[in-house]
From TrEMBL:
<dbReference type="InterPro" id="IPR003593">
    <property type="entry name" value="AAA+_ATPase"/>
</dbReference>
<keyword id="KW-0067">ATP-binding</keyword>
<feature type="transmembrane region" description="Helical">
    <location>
        <begin position="396"/>
        <end position="418"/>
    </location>
</feature>
<feature type="region of interest" description="Disordered">
    <location>
        <begin position="1"/>
        <end position="22"/>
    </location>
</feature>
<dbReference type="InterPro" id="IPR017871">
    <property type="entry name" value="ABC_transporter-like_CS"/>
</dbReference>
<dbReference type="Pfam" id="PF00005">
    <property type="entry name" value="ABC_tran"/>
</dbReference>
<dbReference type="GO" id="GO:0005524">
    <property type="term" value="F:ATP binding"/>
</dbReference>
<feature type="transmembrane region" description="Helical">
    <location>
        <begin position="583"/>
        <end position="607"/>
    </location>
</feature>
<keyword id="KW-1133">Transmembrane helix</keyword>
<dbReference type="GO" id="GO:0016020">
    <property type="term" value="C:membrane"/>
</dbReference>
<dbReference type="Pfam" id="PF12698">
    <property type="entry name" value="ABC2_membrane_3"/>
</dbReference>
<feature type="transmembrane region" description="Helical">
    <location>
        <begin position="663"/>
        <end position="686"/>
    </location>
</feature>
<dbReference type="InterPro" id="IPR027417">
    <property type="entry name" value="P-loop_NTPase"/>
</dbReference>
<feature type="transmembrane region" description="Helical">
    <location>
        <begin position="627"/>
        <end position="651"/>
    </location>
</feature>
<protein>
    <recommendedName>
        <fullName>ABC transporter domain-containing protein</fullName>
    </recommendedName>
</protein>
<dbReference type="GO" id="GO:0140359">
    <property type="term" value="F:ABC-type transporter activity"/>
</dbReference>
<keyword id="KW-0547">Nucleotide-binding</keyword>
Length: 774
């Protein structure tokens, strides 16, 4: 029926159908019932033609199929059915957590999720099937959290808490939820639903894991609260017999209600002793119906339902209750609430067209919910913020992750990555001096202008903490040590290294091949590690410059001649001697801040969603933006602390230099953390499992880090360029010569001005040398 007709006065005559159980009795005239929006509003819950499926439209898993349900105000409605028949799905549609594919739902006079309906919100108390509580909270904190969300004052919550602790036989209010037994946790969950004394209580299997005595007292309580007609309860349970205490029972199977009756009517209708038997009979009947089935349209199905229910109802003709049926309900009979409807109808004697219009009902609902114009409440924000901080505070792992990890990362970085490597072994072979007892004991030299044992003098200059010299008998053994990984490089001096070097200086460009060859320091490096290889190249080259300056100085020559004629002035940015650590540190700071924010947020929402905690919050009336806001605020505070710690460790403990404005450094780091947080929220929104979130975070982490390594590689090249300026020119005594690695030392004759010749074959610089006779 269209809404237009539903609003009107159309009254459907009901046609009796075939008897479900094959009993034919004489039937009284059926009363007619109007089916109007007003009628739907009068029920606590009214579901019409509900269809719901999971999965894609192409491969749907139908869970609700043309389901109709009516829950009158002031009643207990027991929703029974086999596992997987769709009870939880139906309840989650009623509380506004899921949407039907088609059909409509009215809850407390409004449609769930619409403005002013109060649902989700404090008009409903929802106990989901899963525990859906924060394990880190005590019972009291749990109650405070939900109480504040429902807009209650702390004193009010405390009062109610005492009642619920006694009523539900709960342990001390200070016990943590995670330390309670399964049954106790369920009772706390039940207490949360009862906390604010809602108009509509929706309980998904509240009595699981509860002992029979307490179960009875729970039912007594439900009966008690529904007595005055103001409160309504919908309860699902697998203990079918306990549902006898409900006013109405909905028997559900395969996404449909097979019957919706009061328990005693069901029992007498089917002549059964227990509700279980009734359920079995109805289920069998449904199966038989299906076997004989020919495909029917939805409207045919509805008609058939109505017919069946009328037949069901007809079994009860001996009773004084009137029989009623609505055109839409599909499963009605002599049930409690419908009797009520009929009474209203009968007492008026006509169909009341003057009942509240839909807009009036919404206003009423608005008055009830009391928060239609409020975009948030202090209580909700307080509850959400306290929840976020308390969860972190109580979780040692998270606290370590938040505050210890960033500091540890910075310390490890500064200790392990910042400086030059130390203790790199070099295998040295020096044939200028005799090898005894695994060393060259008599490698003596003079620090004056006497040119003896130049190899020893050079080795003395090669004395940095980066290198450890180990001596070998011959070049083969030294190279083998490098191959075995015992050393990073091998250095070899020929027997007449000093003579050849002096001759090379003296002969200059006339130097013969053999002299060039003999004056060479031969170096074989393990270049498999670029950083180490480059550093060794640099230090071996710098040692030669130092050695040559010393010799020139001792001989009274200008030592500056050894320096390459490229003058590096004060750098515009950075230091003259840049530290590898200074270069990488900004990247490390940003990476740490970004990924910690990402890691923390990407799983926060997932855990809450997975455990049903978010669902519970939505049903309690929390808006998504409130959850988001509380997380952003919490995360911001955490990020502030993390950024402070990281920067403090970097700049004040490890003396990293900051030439700019420290406030800007802090601000930029925070902004970087903010982008990590945003990305974390995106991940937590798209991932269902923490595992997937971690994978996605790492998927981003690797390219991010690769770019870092790219920067490091550029740093390495810079080092190499610097290192390549390793040519010296000198004026030795009255002789001029030029020298460069690899091609020997050239002698230019006497009385000449300094000449400069750069090794252009390898590196950057090429300067023409000038031969000037003086
Ligand atoms: N999120 C979901 N995605 C896909 N299928 C779902 C989802 N939730 C439930 N289902 C399926 O829908 C059907 C009905 O599930 P539902 O939880 O509503 O059953 P139920 O009657 O509450 O069962 P129980 O009594 O065991 O809790 C089941 O077949 C279930 O596998």
């Amino acid at each position: 029926m269209s809404e237009g007709s539903a609003m009107g006065e159309r009254v459907e005559p009901v046609v009796p159908g075939p008897d479900l159980v094959g009993v034919n009795v004489e039937r009284p005239p059926l009363t007619h019932q109007q089916s109007t929006v007003w009628n739907k509003r009068q029920q606590a819950v009214c579901v019409r033609h509900a269809f719901k499926h999971y999965g894609s439209n192409k491969k749907p898993n139908h869970v609700l199929s043309n389901l109709n349900m009516t829950v009158a105000k002031g009643t207990i409605y027991g929703l029974l059915g086999a596992s997987g028949c769709g009870k939880t799905t139906l309840l989650s549609c009623i509380v506004g957590r899921r949407r039907l594919n088609t059909g409509e739902i009215w809850v407390l006079g409004g449609k769930p999720g619409t403005k002013g309906s109060g649902v989700p919100g404090k008009r409903v108390g929802y106990m989901p099937q899963e525990i859906a509580l924060y394990g880190e909270f005590s019972i009291k904190e749990t109650m405070m959290y939900f109480g504040w969300i429902f807009g209650m004052e702390s004193s009010e919550i405390n009062e109610r808490l005492q009642f619920l602790l006694n009523f539900l036989d709960l342990p001390s209010q200070n016990r943590l939820v995670k330390n309670l037994s399964g049954g106790q946790q369920r009772r706390v969950s039940f207490a949360v639903a009862l906390m604010h004394d809602p108009e509509l209580l929706i309980l998904d299997e509240p009595t699981v894991g509860v002992d029979p005595l307490l179960r009875q007292s729970i039912w007594n309580h439900l009966v008690q609260i529904t007595k005055d007609g103001n409160k309504t309860v919908i309860i699902t349970t697998h203990y079918i017999e306990e549902a006898r205490q409900a006013h109405t029972i909905g028997l559900m199977r395969s996404g449909k209600l097979l019957a919706e009756e009061s328990p005693h009517v069901l029992l007498s209708m089917y002549g059964c002793q227990s509700l279980e038997e009734v359920f079995l009979k109805l289920s069998r009947k449904q199966v038989q119906g299906k076997e004989n089935d020919v495909p029917v349209t939805v409207s045919q199905q509805t008609e058939q339902n109505i017919a069946n229910n009328i037949s069901l109802a007809s079994l009860n003709w001996g009773k004084k209750d009137s029989i009623s049926v609505t055109e839409e309900s599909g499963v009605v009979g002599l049930n409690f609430h419908q009797s009520k409807e009929v009474l209203v109808h009968d007492s008026n004697g006509h169909l009341d067209k003057g009942k509240p219009s839909s807009s009036r009902s919404i206003t009423d609902a608005c008055d009830d919910c009391g928060s239609c114009t409020e975009w948030t409440t202090r209580g909700k924000i307080r509850a959400l913020l306290q929840k976020n901080f308390l969860r972190m505070w109580r979780n040692v792992g998270v606290m370590l992750f938040i505050f210890a990890l960033p500091v540890m990362q910075v310390i490890l970085f500064c200790l392990a990555i910042g400086g030059d490597p130390k203790g790199l072994k070099l295998a040295i072979v020096n044939h200028e001096v005799p090898y005894t007892n695994q060393t060259y004991q008599h490698c003596d030299f003079f620090r004056n202008c006497s040119l003896t044992h130049m190899s020893c003098r050079y080795l003395d200059a090669l004395n940095t903490s980066t290198m450890v010299k180990e001596y070998y008998r011959d070049p083969m053994m030294a190279k083998e040590a490098v191959r075995r990984g015992d050393a990073w490089g091998a250095l070899y001096f020929t027997e007449n290294f000093t003579d050849a070097l002096v001759a090379r200086m003296a002969l200059g460009k006339d130097t013969d091949e053999e002299t060039l060859d003999q004056s060479e320091i031969r170096v074989w490096l393990d270049m498999s590690n670029q950083q180490i290889g480059v550093i060794l190249q640099r230090d071996i080259g710098l040692a030669f410059q130092a050695f040559f300056k010393e010799v020139l100085g001792a001989c009274g020559s200008n030592v500056d001649i050894v320096d390459p004629p490229v003058s590096f002035k004060d750098p515009i940015y950075g230091n003259e001697k840049p530290y590898f650590r200074d270069f990488v540190a900004p990247g490390i700071i940003l990476t740490v801040v970004f990924f910690l924010a990402l890691a923390l947020t990407s799983s926060a929402l997932i855990t809450e969603r997975h455990d049903g905690l978010l669902d519970r919050a939505w049903v309690a009336g929390v808006y998504p933006w409130e959850v988001l806001f509380s997380h952003v605020l919490t995360q911001f505070v955490v990020m502030f602390g993390q950024t402070f710690l990281v920067l403090f460790a970097m700049f004040y403990v490890f003396d990293l230099e900051c030439k700019g404005n420290m406030f800007l450094v802090f601000l930029l780091s925070m902004l970087n953390g903010l982008s990590g947080m945003c990305f974390g929220f995106v991940i937590s929104a798209v991932c269902d499992l923490e595992r997937n979130a971690i994978q996605l975070s790492f998927g981003q982490f690797l390219p991010h880090f690769a770019s870092q390594w790219n920067s490091l590689a550029s740093g390495g090249n810079a080092l190499s360029s610097h290192q390549s300026i390793r040519v010296a020119a000198l004026n030795y005594g009255h002789k001029c010569f030029e020298m460069h690695f690899g091609e020997g030392l050239g002698y230019y004759g006497t009385n000449c001005l300094p000449r400069i010749y750069f090794d252009c074959s390898l590196d950057l610089y090429f300067l023409e040398y000038q031969y000037v006779n003086t």
